[in-house]
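Me: I keep going back and forth on a fold encoding question. No explanation is needed for now; the record alone will do.

Assistant:
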Amino acid sequence: MAPFRIGVIGAGGGRGRGWARHVKSWEMPVGSDTTELSAIADIDELALNRAAEQLGCKAYKDYMDMLDKENLNLVIIATPHYTHAPMSIAAAERKIHVLCEKPMCINLEQADAMKAAVEKYKVMLAVGFQHRFNPIYVALKRAIEAGDIGEIFQINMIYHWWRAENYFLNSTRVPENKDLDWEGWKGHWLTEGGSCIFNQHIHFLDIFQWLSPSPIKSVYATSRVAKHTFIEADDNTNAIVEFKNGAMGLIQAGVAYQHGKEEEFGIYGTEGQIISRRGMRGTLGIPKLFDDRRKPSARAKRSMLSYMPKKLGDLTKLMYKSMLDAIATGDASKIAVDVNEGRKSVELSRAMLLSQTRKQKIEFPYKDTAGEYPELVHTYEDKDLK
């Protein structure tokens, strides 16, 4: 069997280093070929060389050299957000398939350029939303599509997390921009795109719109810097969502909550409700959600039922395999989040920021203006807040 050649950009950093190790250890068939970690790239030369020595592969400080010289079949992009679009487009132009970490990009102008490149050069692009493979969310999706809880009228998403100051201050420096308040890319609009709704919680914004009963009609949002007073991007955001079928949605997302995680999806229908907490346990008001339950009694039908999947599985590995299967078969429908699906979470995140910027409800579809960002209130610094 011939090698299916894979390169990883950003292999000196945490997520990229993890991807390189995965590719090295997860030898998988791709048609008649077998995956091979051929090369890695990173701007941090010390981290790059250390990783290359550990992994036994070629190393490139310039990712363009790797794309030009390595005859890659697939490249995995695990770099700061603002680099995702140009790197993906460069790979597509060389007819290299792309697995890009989330978010796909930081505005709709970039998303549309990525879509155009993928279509022009006839390559596949997957976005790294591994939570699409979480068995709880898969079960919720099936239940909604089957009509098990009737017509959906409300979806709530509450994700309260914490990130310490060093998370922002110690992020990878931005070498081409020396005018930032600190060198790290996190917490800046132009490099991160947004903080909590473009970084941590975009995973769950993807799930929110995936589970939604119909396309989004409008979004009204407010954002603040509640805790991390030195960053310009959001650390706490609330949004009200309207869907085209009349259903409503509520989003609370933040990384300013110091006292533990609170994570919940609540899906409410005319025939019942489903509440999933921390992506692990489903509590439902009907008995039909999960295939592996015994048939409940009439009394149980009136009770709340709980479900914990026996095994979550390695969600990243499942996502990776789905991309390889899509390439092997030429069937892009096997990709959980392709370029079109990846655009949806960017569209929702940008709408939330533009609503704050323009102080108005954003109707879908809308015109995105790259570089248009709000000047956020810093809750504990601004004197005009009562």
User: Anything to note?
Assistant: The domain at 132-313+344-363 is CATH 3.30.360.10 (Dihydrodipicolinate Reductase; domain 2). The first strand starts at residue 3 and ends at 9. Confidence is low (pLDDT under 50) at residues 285-294, 296-304.
